[in-house]
């Protein structure tokens, strides 16, 4: 099995962490998004979506991180502990509920904060407008409130007493804005306690290794400046996205 990943990407981190923590063998195929490698002719033969992660299992190619996580859990169900993607109807529904919700909530808002704080200044040559930044941070706060109040409640993890794919996807998304220096855990003791349980369940060393790139995101400008033509293409996209 081959996994095409860039660990600056939160969905890629979720796939890497899951494959490693459950002991699934794979070949790591690095795709550097900051250098535009996903736009290469070679990668286009792997996925016309030109996004990571991508799983290639023999002749079978699968995109979208949530689909990949479920595929791994189900293909290796004999060796993957049930709590990751529970067989029980209600518990699995809880996991699926979170995974369906997060795309347009925590993922969307955490990504926007990350882009505005770390990528916007590189692409546009100026700091992000304050009103857009404030709105993005406020939206992120609201998503974090819902994570605590709706999805976690008083449980140790989102689907119960043990970690699941829902917790894994949630933590990597939260770490994205954290990598820019924004402490989204401040004033949230419940979320901090949950984070520590997730890290312990994954293994702190593995967690830290997976997040090394995002924690050191300050190296991103130098890498992106190597490809001025790609920078121009991204500038047009950013103008459309944040106009």
TrEMBL record:
One Pfam short name: GST_C
EC identifiers of the protein: 2.5.1.18
One GO BP: glutathione metabolic process
Catalytic reaction(s) noted: RX + glutathione = an S-substituted glutathione + a halide anion + H(+)
Subcellular location: Cytoplasm
Keyword Transferase: yes
Gene3D superfamilies noted in UniProt: 1.20.1050.10, Glutaredoxin
Record's GO cellular component terms: cytoplasm
InterPro entries per the UniProt record, alphabetical: Glutathione-S-Trfase_C-like, Glutathione-S-Trfase_C_sf, Glutathione_S-Trfase, Glutathione_S-Trfase_N, GST_C, GST_C_Theta, GST_N_Theta, GST_Theta
Domain GST C-terminal: 88-231
Coiled-coil segments: none
An annotated Gene Ontology molecular function: glutathione transferase activity
Domain GST N-terminal residues, every copy: 1-80
Record keywords: Cytoplasm, Transferase
Subunit structure: Homodimer.
PANTHER family: GLUTATHIONE S-TRANSFERASE THETA-1, PTHR43917
Family: Belongs to the GST superfamily. Theta family.
Protein name: glutathione transferase
Naturally occurring in which organism (per UniProt): Channa punctata
């Amino acid at each position: 099995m081959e996994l095409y990943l860039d660990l600056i990407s939160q969905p890629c981190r979720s796939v890497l962490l899951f494959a490693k923590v459950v002991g699934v063998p794979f070949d790591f195929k690095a795709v550097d998004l900051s250098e535009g490698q996903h736009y290469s002719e070679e990668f286009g033969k792997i996925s016309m979506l030109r996004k990571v992660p991508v799983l290639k299992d023999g002749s079978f190619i699968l995109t979208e991180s949530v689909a990949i996580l479920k595929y791994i859990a189900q293909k290796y169900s004999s060796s993957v502990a049930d709590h990751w993607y529970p067989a029980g109807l209600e518990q699995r529904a809880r996991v699926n509920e979170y995974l369906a919700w997060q795309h347009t909530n925590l993922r969307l808002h955490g990504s926007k904060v990350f882009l505005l704080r770390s990528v916007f200044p590189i692409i546009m040559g100026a700091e992000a407008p304050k009103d857009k930044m404030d709105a993005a941070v406020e939206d992120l706060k609201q998503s974090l409130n819902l994570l605590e109040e709706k999805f976690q409640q008083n449980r140790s993890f989102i689907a119960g007493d043990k970690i699941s794919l829902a917790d894994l996807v949630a933590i990597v998304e939260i770490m994205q804005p954290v990598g820019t220096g924004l402490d989204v855990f401040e004033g949230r003791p419940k979320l901090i306690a949950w984070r520590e349980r997730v890290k312990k369940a994954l293994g702190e060393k593995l967690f830290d290794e997976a997040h090394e790139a995002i924690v050191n995101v300050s190296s991103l400008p130098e890498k992106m400046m190597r490809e001025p033509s790609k920078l121009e293409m991204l500038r047009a996209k950013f103008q459309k996205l944040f106009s």
